[in-house]
Amino acid sequence: MPPISEETYLLRPIGHVESPLIDPAEAPKQSFEGAPAAWLVFDEAVREGLRELHVGDEIVVLTWLDRADRGVLRVHPRGDTSLPERGVFSTRSPHRPNPIGLHRVKITAIVDVLRIQVDALEALNGTPIVDLKPALKRGGSPPRQAPR
Amino acid sequence: MPPISEETYLLRPIGHVESPLIDPAEAPKQSFEGAPAAWLVFDEAVREGLRELHVGDEIVVLTWLDRADRGVLRVHPRGDTSLPERGVFSTRSPHRPNPIGLHRVKITAIVDVLRIQVDALEALNGTPIVDLKPALKRGGSPPRQAPR
């Protein structure tokens, strides 16, 4: 693939995933396919950004899938060569020009703000974390009304 | 905020948002608060990745919120100073160390693969697009079973 643009932006990880998943070949494709619990371990520098997270919160974890191939635009879904190739933007393949992983999870434990356990995560051990956001309810309603 | 890590990753935009939203002060905070239809305009280099997208598809658009402040870790929710400050990772504020925007939208038109219209997007005109993914149904089930 030719270079897309001169315009670039720098991602700086805010933490990393600690998971028993080591081997990409054994990792589930999606969290609902038997992904294990994992720890999100954050850098001291972002402590103040994490304080209001609580056990039970549903969040979206954004990761940088650092073992993905950024040159890929067409894939066989789920790596199954019996399925016709599709453009990566209509799949959840990790292989894509900007391999950002989206993982909707529930917080199951928090230790000293910086260590957050989540219920099921398909990301490999050591995967960089780049952002967290509260999950929105379907249909776009906010998760909790702010007090007035 | 001190530098978080020496480890960095380079995002290369795959396209840009065309929207009537020009002024950040007038943009809705969330798509369900009256965001307008917008066009996603992609670079020729990623055409092959887009071919299987169709009108009616629900997708997640990932943007780089290039006018956000990356040094912010605490915000008043929705910019309302009567609300107590919170850590950015428990809010949807654009201001955060890696300002990636997540926008769940429906495709309403496609012109020559590279121009995709979506129903409601709160991103400003010119915002870089970094990825697209099919939206997952709630509870983690896949949007469509692959044929066996």
Textual characterization of the structure:
- The structure is a homodimer of 148-residue chains.
- Chain A is mainly β.
- Chain A has one domain (15-134): Elongation Factor Tu (Ef-tu), domain 3 (Beta Barrel).
- Chain A has one helix at 47-50, and strands at residues 9-11, 15-18, 38-42, 58-64, 74-75, 86-87, 100-111, 115-118, 128-134.
- In chain A, strands 2-3-8-7-4-9 form a six-stranded antiparallel β-barrel. A two-stranded antiparallel ribbon of chain A has the order 5-6.
- The N and C termini of chain A lie far apart (51 Å).
- The relative contact order of chain A is 0.30.
- At the A-B interface, strand 1, helix 1, strand 4, strand 6 and strand 7 of A face strand 1, helix 1, strand 4, strand 6 and strand 7 of B.
Gross CATH architecture of chain A: Beta Barrel
Our estimate of the beta-strand percent of chain A is 25-35%
Radius of gyration based on Cα positions of chain A: 17 Å
Question: Which chains make the largest contact?
Answer: A-B, 64 and 64 residues
Compressed to H and E, one letter per element, the order of chain A equals EEEHEEEEEE
Structural shape of chain A? globular
Domain module count of chain A: 1
Using the coordinates shown, work out and report the CATH topology of chain A.
Elongation Factor Tu (Ef-tu), domain 3
Category by helix and strand content of chain A: mainly beta
- Helix content, binned percent of chain A: under 10%
Mind summarizing the main beta sheet of chain A?
Answer: 6 strands, antiparallel, barrel
Name the CATH superfamily assignment of chain A. Answer: YaeB-like
Mean pLDDT of chain A: 89
Outline the low-pLDDT stretches of chain A: 139-148
Instruction: Tell me the distance between the termini of chain A.
Output: 51 Å
